Amino acid sequence: MAATVSTPRTTASGQELRPSPRRPVWMGRPSAGIQAGKALLIAVIVVIMLYPFLYVIAMSFASREAAAAGGFFPNEFSLEAYRSVLGGNVVTRALLVSIGITLVGTALSMLFTTTLAYGLMRTREVPGAKFVLVAVLCTMLFGAGIIPNYLLIRSLGLLDTYWALILPGLISAFNMVVVRNFFMGLPNELLESARIDGASDWRIFTGIILPLSKAVLAVVGLFYAVGYWNAFFNALIYLNDTSKWPIQVVLNQYVVQGSALTSVQAPDIPPPPPATVQMAIIVLATIPILIVYPFLQRYFTKGVLTGAIKG
Amino acid sequence: MAVIETSDRAGAGPSGRADPEPAPEYRLRTRASVWTRMKRERWTYAFIVPGVLFFAVFAYIPLLGNVVAFQDFSPYWGIFNSEWVGFDNFVAMMSDPQFMRALRNTLTISFLQIAFAFPAPILLAILLNSLISDRIKRMVQSIVYLPHFISWVIVISIWQQVLGGAGPVADLFSQIGVDGVNIMSNPDTFKILVTSQVIWKDIGWGTIIFFAAISGIPSELYEAAAADGAGPMRRIWHVTLPGMVPVITLLLILTIGSVLTVGFEQLLLQQPAVGSAAAEVLDTFVYYRGIQGGDWGLATAAGLFKGVIGTILVVAANKFAKRLGTGGLF
To answer: Which has the higher per-residue pLDDT, A245 or B326?
Structure first.
C-alpha cells in the first residue's frame, strides 16, 4: 500500500493533507445502500452516546421558564442553578474534598506503583521478586469481599478518615503491570551502562526511567485520578460523617435519591427549579473528567494493551 | 513476604552443608549465590518493600478476615473472641429466601450481560474497522470511550434525568398519549435497563482490545479470501472473527469468572428506586445484611461463597480454554 503512486491530495489552501489509508485494491467499493446504512448506524450510536451529556449540560443552564417547558433542548439560558449550588456549602465542600483526595491519592499511587514496578523489573536478578510479582498478579483474580475489607479498615482505625478512600486502592495490580511492562520495554543497555557508571537505583529510576516513561505515566495517572474522583462505595461505607463526603456521595444523595438540597438562599428569591440544580451538580461532578479526557485519550490504547499482555 | 521467604532459604544454606550426605555441588552454589545476590540488590528491596506491605495488608490480610463466615461474629468481641459456629452461617444462607432471590437476580443479569453486553463491543469493533476514513474512525472512538470514565453515580444520574419520570423521553411518551412512563423505576424491565446501561458505559472501551486483535490479522488473508470470491460479510465471518477468537476466549474466561459479580455500585444506586425484589444481587445482599444489618457472619458467608465459586469458575474456564487449544489466561 505504501508503494501506491499518487499525487498528495491538497486542501483549497494548498496545504497537504495527511495521507489517509486507501481502500486496498482487493476490496470492492460497497454499495450505496450499505454505505448509507453504516453512516446511519454510526450517527445513531454517536447520538445515543452524546445526547444524555448534552441534555444535562443544556438543562443545567436553563432558565426557570425553559426548564419548566421541558422539551429536548431548553432555549433560554441562566446561571441561576450554578449560583445556587456553589452558594450553598454542601456541594462546594464536597468538590474540594474530591479534588484533595484525587490529588493526594494520585500522587501517592503513582509513587508506590512506579517504585514497585521498578523493583519488580528484574525478576531474574533479584531473589524473591518473582514471588512478589506472582502474589501481586494473584490479587487480580480474587478479592477478600466487602465485609472483611470493612473490618480491616475498622480495625486500622481508618473509619471516618480520608485515608479510608486512599489507602485501600493505593496500588492497583493492573496499573502496576502496565507500568512494569513499559519500563521493561526501555532499552536495557541504557540501564546497564548507568549501573556500570555507578548510578544508584534511585538515580536510575528518577533520572532515566521516569523521564522516558511520560506516556505511560500519563495514562496510569489518569486511571488513578479517575478512580479517586469517582470513589463512591468506599466513601459511602467508610465515612459516616456527612461533612467529609466527596462529590459522588453528595451526587447520589441529592440527585439519585432525590433528597432536598439545603442551600443558603436569600429568603426573597425563590430557589431555582430542583431539576436544573440537580443537572448543575451532575455537570460539576463530570467536568474534571471532560477536561483531562481529550489530552490523554491518545495514550489509552497503548496503556490498555500493554496491561492486557500477561506479566 | 518474599524477602522473608528467600532469606529463610538463604539461612538454610549452612545447615545444608552440614548434612551427612553432601548436596550436589550446583545446589550449594545456587544457595550461596542467593545470599550474595540479595546483598548486591539490597537497595532494590527498598523499592519492593512498600508494595509488599501494601498488598499484604490490604489484599492478603482481609482474605483471612473471611473466617468471620464461620463465626457468630460481633464487632464488640472481635475476630479473636467471637464464638465459632462451623457451617451454621452457610446453612442459614442457603435456607434464606432473600439470598436465593439475590442469587437468581445475579445469575439472570449475568446471563443477559454475557448474551448482549459481551458481544456488543465485538460488533462495534468490526463496524468501526470497516470504516475507511481514519478521521471518522478516531472521532467515533473518542466519543464512545468517554462514558467509561464517568462514575456509576453520574451515569445513573444522567440516565435518570433523561429516562426518568420528568425527562424528555417521558415527555415524548405523554405527547403520544402514554402518561407516567418512568423507565428508571420499572421493576419488570429493570434487568434490561441494567444491561443497556452496561452496554452504554463500556461498549467503546471494550472495543480497544478487539481492535488490537483485528489489526493483528495479516492482510494477505483478506486478499486471499477476496481472490477466492468472498464478499465483505464472508470475509468478516471467515477471516476477521477467527482472528479474534483468542482474545474473545480470553475475555470470556474473565466474564465467566465474574458471573456472580454484577455491577455492584450500579445496582446499589438503583435499588431504592426499583425495590429489592428486582435489584437485590449478591453484593448488595452482603452490603445490606452485613454493614447495614449487622448480620456479619451470614453476610461474610455469602461473600465467601461468591468469591470461592468465582475463583473456581475462572480456573476451570481457563483449563477448558487451554484444552480447546486457544491458550488460557494463565
So the answer is: A245
- Dig out the grid coordinates for A130 from the structure: 518473582
Average pLDDT across chain B, whole number = 86
A23 touches chain B (CB under 8 A): yes
- What's the pTM? 0.85
Give per-residue pLDDT as tens, A134-167: 999 989 888 888 999 999 999 999 999 999 999 9
How many beta carbons lie within 10 A of that of residue B194, not counting itself?
25
From chain A, the residues in CB contact with B61 under 8 A are 152
Q: Where are the alpha helices (DSSP H) in chain A?
A: 32-60, 64-69, 80-87, 89-119, 129-138, 146-155, 163-166, 173-185, 188-196, 201-204, 210-212, 214-229, 233-238, 247-251, 274-296, 300-308
Contact call for B159 and A305, based on CB within 8 A: no
Could you tell me if A253 and A285 lie in one domain? Answer: yes
Q: What is the pLDDT of residue B198?
A: 96
> Over 80: is that where the pLDDT of A4 sits?
no
Residue A53 belongs to what domain range? 35-78
Q: A61 and A124, same structural domain?
A: no
Residues 20..49 of B with a Cβ closer than 8 Å to A: which? Answer: 34, 37-38, 41, 43-48
State percent of chain B over pLDDT 90. Answer: 52
- State the nearest Cα–Cα gap between A118 and chain B, in angstroms: 7
Question: Of the candidates B47, B145, B209, which has its C-beta nearest A201's C-beta?
Answer: B47
Quote the Cα angle for B193-B283-A255, to 5°: 50
Complex ipTM value = 0.85
Specify the pLDDT at position B177. Answer: 82
- The H or E element containing residue A11 is none
A-B contacts at Cβ under 8 angstroms:
274
pLDDT for B32 equals 54
Whether the Cβ atoms of residue A113 and residue A179 lie closer than 8 Å to each other:
yes
A262 and A214 in a common domain = yes
Q: Smallest Cα–Cα separation from B196: which of B244, B147, B256?
A: B147
Residue B20's SS3 state is coil
Q: How far apart are CA B218 and CA B224, in angstroms?
A: 11
Identify the band that residue B26 occupies on the pLDDT scale cut at 50, 70 and 90.
low
Q: What is the mean pLDDT of residues B232-252?
A: 89
Burial of A161 from C-beta contacts in 10 A (0-12 / 13-18 / 19+): middle
- The beta-carbon neighbor of A128 closest among B3, B124, B204 is B3
Instruction: Tell me, yes or no, whether A117 and A101 share the same domain.
Output: yes
The answer to whether B133 contacts chain A (CB < 8 Å) is yes
pLDDT at A154: 93
Same domain (yes/no): A60, A175:
no
Mean pLDDT along residues B310-328: 81
Q: Is the pLDDT of residue A49 over 60?
A: yes
**Residue A165 has what pLDDT?**
96
Phi-psi region of A215 (alpha: psi -120 to 50; beta: other; left: phi over 0): alpha
Determine contact: A157 vs chain B, CB below 8 A.
no
For residues A50 and B200, give the distance between their C-alpha atoms in angstroms, rounded to a whole number: 10
Chain A closest-CA separation from residue B62 CA (Å): 5
- Amino acid, single-letter form, for residue B27: R
What is the average pLDDT value for chain A, to the nearest integer?
A: 84
Using a CB-CB cut-off of 8 Å, the residues of chain A touching B246 are none
**A10 found inside a domain:** no
